[in-house]
Write a structure and sequence with these properties.
The complex is a heterodimer. By secondary structure, chain A is α/β, with parallel strands linked by helices. Chain A contains six helices and 18 strands. Chain B is an alpha/beta fold. In chain B, strands 5, 6, 8, 9, 11, 12, 14, 16, 17, 19, 21 and 23 form a twelve-stranded mixed sheet that branches. Chain B has a ten-stranded mixed sheet with strand order 4-3-7-10-13-15-18-20-22-24. A two-stranded antiparallel sheet of chain B has the order 1-2. Chain B contains 13 helices and 24 strands. Chain B has a domain of 294 residues. In chain B, helix 1 crosses helix 13, helix 3 packs antiparallel against helix 10 and helix 12 runs antiparallel to helix 13.
Chain lengths: 367, 469
């Protein structure tokens, strides 16, 4: 069945399902008419390296998709919708076996100013070692990005996605399998679109996989940023951590929902998730649902936690006593809060690039 | 406590016997508007109550089943194969000697009269649909404390009941609150006057005896300003191969400065579906505590809730759940912070064994106008074997920036270090496991009256038997 037929055969998602509880499908559909699959344009993709002196050999973006099936664990409605809307806008980011890059690789996705959809397959070979920054920018009123694929055995990948479209709605779906003994840091930096619905799913289906999912989310004005992260531990000796920091100001709302699912047979699984929310204004709202389903008793440990709170008064007092004015102290604490996950996303070079990006966003927020 | 000692003390599911049915009134299986009207007519209720029942019945009929929880078990419930009303006695007695002998023997075996003499302020014993025994200490009665079964409460204090009935849990709340409102029978009605402290707990004991029985008690507790009360309920049923349904509604109203503690040790047999709605409203500086133990039943879906409506009010929910073979305990808590300076605490502990499934499902919310709220949620789960499962589904909705909210949960197995330590001190492995489990549940048992705590520890030791090897 093709993607459009599959989408049309599915029922409207139920709000009882927490994936849709705070951001119903109707709110992120381009027109609100759920039967409609819009005509979209393909975004412009540019692959480069932060260090201009590094040649892009062994990594490429090619038209078309080979393999990179969407995981069965993924939500069918969103994945089939983006595939249908993307049409021929399908690409594969391929890293050959043993590809190593000393400087972060940047994939720019420029959405333009019309509704835009993309299916990007990740085909990361064995024993690769590099950092990938995927930057989604532009002025499209609606953007759909589906990333599916597999991180090859033994690869070390820091994979950071930055969503800072000027406005509109961003629907992002990740459906990624982690190979045997692969070590992946999956970072999300989100601060741009008016409305974001991200559904990020990872399958730890092979022994020894190691995954760190990190989020640094900044919302302001009337933004509505909803991120769902699902990690499936299906194989023994797999490790995952989720650390998600959301700073929420203005009239905005952030939603963080997580699901850790440890299947029977995933002996020695070690899984944890933490959601931290910093509320910056009276009308901001932050919701967290970190869920846990454990069907294997022989686990190292499975846990989750959430913490919500305002900017700490004692920390404010400390900084003010050291000469910061109130606004500076507050900004410093917000930046530090968001930085605590940014710093974990990759190398110093990557971190430096990200903090510069974040500072711009904080300045925008202040303005 | 050693497992053998526990078995000697309590036997196998000790409440699993049944008496011959000796009904004075027994309705046919199935539910209709006429059944609802007949229940109301038998009880000679005021018209307003009949009308609420009928409205609730129609709501129940039109309301779909929940699409969450354990849907595969929920769909097994056949509402047409449930008896919605069964009367076994001639009325509610205040002397055990006047209770029919077979029923009295049942409660003797359960130890209720003995407990009443030793440590209770009052007792209601419900058998099938209605209370068969009721008493309250004279001195409390003189202080104006009202403790009646709900049917008598409606007869004797219709104005109070009318004011508060459905005020905390409206029949439109969910399918099972609608069902309960339509066919409720029995339960407790308590009013504690201003400033009165009921020092010793009052207890209600609910027993299902008949096959395919539905028990739908309704409990309403109103603690007036500055008063306090501790209510304890226990429940058992015989083990049958056919299913029974228990769907209660409990409404608590804690007026300013009052304190209600509601303790439950649920030990239904594993053919009972236990689908209960419990909710309280705490006014200014009031405190509501739910102490909730779920040991039995096939499926429990129960989420004691507190609405913190008044400034400075406080809520606590301490719950434990044991899920054995074929059981699913889907329990949790809900707390809504609607007023400023309110605080709450949830502690949930569960053990899954022999293929059982334990789920924590909770919701805490802070409304935009509730300043300086603090809340803390802790869920711990132990999985004892490879066939069992544990889930946590917590939801946290925070709409005020001054709120401080924390949630943490962990799922683990019994630590090998702890077992090794206890065994190195001379305990057999099974004893050591029982001790660890009792220690795991200790934050719950220490909140129970001592007699209940001892009984619960025995039960848990028994359930742990055979866990090793």
């Amino acid at each position: 069945m093709d993607a459009a037929s599959l989408y049309k055969s599915l029922d409207e998602p139920d709000k009882a399902d927490h994936l849709w509880r705070y951001t119903p499908w109707k709110r992120v559909h381009p027109s609100g008419d759920l039967s409609e699959i819009p005509v979209t344009v393909a975004p412009k993709l540019t692959l480069s390296c932060l260090d201009d002196n590094v040649a892009l050999v062994g990594i490429s973006v090619e038209e078309g998709i080979v393999g990179a099936e969407v995981l069965p664990e993924s939500d069918e409605v969103t994945s089939s919708f983006i595939r249908a809307a993307a049409g021929d806008s399908v690409y594969t980011l391929r890293a050959e076996n043993n590809f190593v890059a000393s400087s972060p690789i940047v994939l720019d996705i420029d959405t333009g100013d019309s509704p835009c959809a993309l299916h990007l397959a990740l085909d990361i070979g064995r024993h690769c070692e590099f950092e990938l920054i995927t930057q989604i920018s532009g002025a499209a009123p609606w953007t759909g990005v589906l990333r599916s694929g597999r991180i090859g055995d033994g690869s070390i990948l820091n994979d950071v996605v930055i969503g800072h479209t000027d406005s509109g709605t961003l629907l992002r779906v990740d459906s990624i399998a982690i190979g045997r003994d692969a070590q992946v840091k999956a970072g999300t930096v989100s601060s741009g679109s008016e409305r974001t619905k991200a559904d990020l799913r990872y399958k730890m289906g092979e022994t020894g996989g190691h995954l760190n999912v990190l989020g640094s989310i900044l919302s302001a004005s009337k933004m509505h940023l909803d991120h769902h992260v699902e990690i499936h531990h299906d194989a023994p000796e797999t490790f995952s951590r989720l650390d998600w920091h959301s700073a929420c100001g203005g009239n905005s709302r952030t939603v963080g929902t997580g699901m850790l699912r440890v299947a029977k047979g995933a002996r020695g699984a070690d899984a944890g998730q933490l959601f931290h929310n910093l509320l910056l204004s009276e009308k901001a709202e932050a919701d967290s649902i970190p869920e846990l389903e454990v069907s294997e008793h022989d686990v190292v440990g499975c846990g989750h936690g959430t913490a919500n709170g305002p900017v700490d008064e004692e920390q404010m007092f400390y900084l003010e006593s050291r000469g910061f004015d109130t606004s500076e102290a507050r900004d410093a604490l917000i930046a530090a809060f968001l930085n605590s996950t940014l710093i974990e996303m990759g190398s110093d070079t990557l971190h430096h690039w990200l903090t510069e990006h974040l500072q711009d966003e904080l300045n925008d927020l202040k303005a | 406590m050693a497992a053998k000692e526990a078995r000697d003390a309590v036997g196998e599911y000790k409440a699993g016997w049944h008496d011959p049915e000796n009904a004075t009134i027994r309705f046919d299986f199935g539910l209709s508007e006429q059944v609802v009207r007949d229940i109301s007519a038998i009880k000679n209720e005021p018209e307003w109550m009949t009308e609420i029942r009928v409205k609730a019945y129609h709501h129940f009929e039109n309301r779909p089943m929940p699409t969450w929880g354990n849907m595969s078990l929920l769909k097994n419930i056949d509402f047409d194969k449930v008896c919605y009303f069964l009367r076994s006695g001639e009325g509610t007695e205040d002397d055990w000697d006047d209770v029919p002998e077979a029923i009295r023997n049942t409660f003797d075996k359960l130890g209720i009269p003995e407990a009443e003499q030793k440590w209770l302020s009052g007792v209601t014993a419900q058998y099938e649909s209605e209370a068969v025994y009721h008493s309250i200490r004279e001195d409390l009665e003189q202080q104006g404390v009202i403790f009646l079964d709900m049917d008598s409460g409606l007869r004797e204090y219709p104005e109070i009941v009318k004011k508060w009935f459905c005020s905390v849990v409206p029949y439109q709340d969910n399918k099972f609150s609608a069902l309960n409102t339509a066919v409720w029978s029995g339960g407790s009605f308590i009013y504690v006057p201003k400033g009165v402290h009921v020092e010793m707990p009052v207890q209600a004991y609910f027993r299902i005896n008949a096959k395919n029985m539905g028990q739908f008690e309704r409990t309403l507790i109103i603690a007036d300003e500055g008063s306090s009360i501790h209510y304890v309920e226990g429940c058992t049923a015989p083990t049958y191969s056919t299913d029974s349904l228990h769907s209660a509604v409990v409404e608590l109203i804690a007026l300013p400065g009052s304190h209600i503690r509601y303790s439950t040790v649920q030990n239904w047999s594993t053919n009972v579906y236990n689908l209960v709605t419990k909710r309280g409203i705490a006014h200014k500086n009031a405190k509501i505590e739910w102490v909730d133990g779920n040991i039995g039943s096939r499926l429990t879906m129960k989420y004691p809730a507190v609405i913190l409506k008044g400034e400075g009010s406080h809520a606590e929910v301490i719950s434990v759940a044991y899920s054995g073979k074929g059981q699913h305990q889907d329990a949790g808590a809900k707390i809504h912070h609607l007023a400023s300076n309110t605080t709450s605490k949830i502690l949930s502990k569960s053990i899954s064994k022999d293929g059982g499934r334990g789920s924590y499902r909770g919701l805490v919310s802070v409304s935009p106008k509730a300043e300086n709220c603090k809340l803390n949620v802790v869920c711990d789960a132990l999985i004892l074997d490879e066939n069992s499962r544990s889930d946590t589904y917590p939801t946290m909705e925070v709409a005020n920036p001054t709120a401080r909210c924390e949630h943490e949960a962990s799922v683990s197995k019994v630590s090998d270090d702890q077992l090794f330590y206890l065994m190195s001190r001379g305990h057999a492995e099974e004893e050591a496991l029982a001790m660890i489990v009792n220690g795991f549940f200790e934050p719950f048992t220490r909140e129970l009256p001592m007699e209940y705590a001892v009984e619960l520890n025995k039960l848990m030791a028994l359930e742990m038997e055979g866990s090793i090897g």
